[in-house]
Amino acid sequence: MGCFIEKDLIDKTIAFHGHKCPGLVIGIRAAELALKRLGCAEGKDLVAVVETDMCGVDAIQFLTGCTFGKGNLIHKDFGKMAFSFYDRSRDISFRILLLPDISGDLGSELRSLMKKAENGTANEEEHARIQKLRDELQERYMTADLEKMFIVKEAPLPAPKPARILQSLRCEACGEMTMESRTRRFGGKTLCLPCFERVEQKV
Questions:
Q1: Domain 7-102+144-153, what architecture?
Q2: Where do the domains of the chain lie?
Q3: Rounded CA gap, 86 and 34, in Å?
Q4: Prior bond to 158 cis, omega within 30?
């Protein structure tokens, strides 16, 4: 089938991110699946939990309206191409995981050439090949059936709680105000996380 999101909106997503790349397209298709299943949930009812910090998260933010500031875009640093979506108002949720085989030979060749580019050993022809592979991979992702691109599973429950406004406390080491939930007690003092990590280090 291919992506149902209008080209104009895709172009705006690319402009928001700054460039088009395979990672961004993965995010576009993930957001498409979320909108297809959940629709446009009101305000903070739609929640996205992303398990990576790759380019596609920008697409999810732009297309779903989930943001860190509203507390309904949550990053878990697991390094997985996985995204969970929740509609708090209807108690609907699901988690999707990119199928590892979707990139196929294109992905294998691209990863091999990218390593050469990163260590400075790729020649001009190989750099051109990298761009061609990236374009072909983007096209593959954009035209793939969503069911053949992602594994859909149940999302971990319960849904993340709405953001709360918490008290700020002054760190007794650096003096900076810090959200209460992000402070630690050490040696009888209230510390922000960076100061706590400095004094608590074992080595």
A1: 2-Layer Sandwich (3.30)
A2: 7-102+144-153, 168-200
A3: 9
A4: yes
**Residue where the block lists tokens 């750099």:** 127
Amino acid in the structure at residue 83: F
Listed residue (35, 21, 10, 2) closest to 146, CA to CA:
2
Q: How big is the chain, counted in residues? A: 203
Give pLDDT tens digits along the chain (203 positions).
Answer: 578 899 999 999 999 999 999 999 999 999 999 999 987 656 678 999 999 999 999 999 999 999 998 999 999 999 999 999 999 888 889 999 999 899 999 989 999 999 999 999 989 999 999 999 999 999 999 999 999 999 999 998 888 888 788 899 999 999 999 999 999 999 999 999 999 999 987 65
Q: In a 3-state reduction of DSSP, which class is residue 180? A: helix
H or E element, residue 93: strand 92-98
Tokens of 93: 């949720």
CB 169 within 8 A of CB 177: yes
Which CATH number is associated with domain 168-200?
Answer: 3.30.60
Pairing of strands 73-75, 92-98: unpaired
Burial class (CB in 10 A: 0-12, 13-18, 19+), 85: buried
Q: Where are the alpha helices (DSSP H) in the chain?
A: 7-17, 22-38, 56-64, 104-118, 124-143, 146-149, 193-200
User: What is the Cα–Cα distance from 138 to 41, expressed in whole angstroms?
Assistant: 28
